[in-house]
Amino acid sequence: MDFKLLPKIELHCHLDGSVRPQTVLDIAKEENVELPTYEMEQLRGLLEVPEDCTSLVEYLNRFNIPLTVMQSKSALRRITYELLEDAAAENVKYIEIRYAPVLHVNKGLTLEEVIESVLKGIKDGEADFEIKANLILSCLRHRGPESAMMVAEAGRRFLNKGVVAIDLCGAENEGFSKEYVEVISKAREYGYRVTIHAGETGYGSNVVDAINLLHAERIGHGVSIKDLKEAYDLVKEKGILLEMCPTSNIDTKIVKGYEDHPIYKFYKDGIKVSFNTDNRTVSNTNVTRECEEINEKVQISLEEYKNIYLDSVNASFASEQVKEELKKYI
User: Fold this and answer.
1) Among the listed residues 321, 3, 309, 317, the one whose alpha carbon sits nearest the alpha carbon of residue 133
2) Which of 53, 16, 58, 40 lies closest to 277 in space, CA to CA?
3) Which ranges constitute the DSSP H helices of 61-180?
4) How many CB atoms lie within 10 A of CB 327?
5) CA–CA separation, 38 and 247 (whole Å)
6) What is the pLDDT of residues 308-319, one digit of tens each?
7) Catalytic residue numbers?
8) Is 143:103 a contact under the CB 8 Å cutoff?
9) What is the rounded average pLDDT for all residues in the chain?
10) Which residue ranges form the domains of the chain, and what is each CATH number?
């Protein structure tokens, strides 16, 4: 089975973790941004996670350099456009891009300008490539509920104009959902859909809270439900799709290898899953590779792949019209 030829859906892809190394160099030179090195291979080594990475916290350090060149309207627009180009090149038909707007205001842009610039990049990419895209606004857990509310308010006028959902991300502490109940509730009132990073680093209880307290419609990662029956049963019973990112989970040492990743076991037991990159540059991956690496261990049938594709379409935050178009590809 040639996964590159098959249509694909990506629901969990961070913009700042998916910047082309050459683009980092280009923007740094254009905007006089100081980099640790201007030699391509050395730079690539600083952007990609090392094999000896020990944790999610260490993994997240790889975002520092890209963020320095993502502080202008033109840079954000270009990087978004190139992400759509890269995704379309491997036959991704629909992608939901996520990023934290608060990380892109260091040189004076407003949150609204940051959001608008990425939406323009999406529009450019949709015009030039056979792909559809939407935007998820991520809120950094360590910044607190007040920061999250600012993001929700800033993105409000872009709802139904490319912005579709809100997310909580970053280092994962046990019980984080409790302090975000009010913010996420307000965001839902505004019309945001909800996906939450939870159960990525060992706390299955966070998945329970994300669903019961924050009414998450999807869960980012969710690997740790394998260790907590309450979380596992809740995800299965409610039909919550897990946005799974195998290579990233291996990079952060959440699982040892592809043979240990639970994505296929979850699927076979009736849990809805999707294949995602998390961060194309940081993890040096794409959706095709994610499928191929898991397939090498478990031999996914074409019928199984179709089911995963359709589950991903149905769980997406795309319009009903776009969903119908996406279903035709398979």
Assistant:
1) 317
2) 16
3) 64-68, 73-89, 111-128, 144-155
4) 13
5) 27
6) 999 999 999 999
7) 200
8) no
9) 96
10) 8-329 (3.20.20.140)
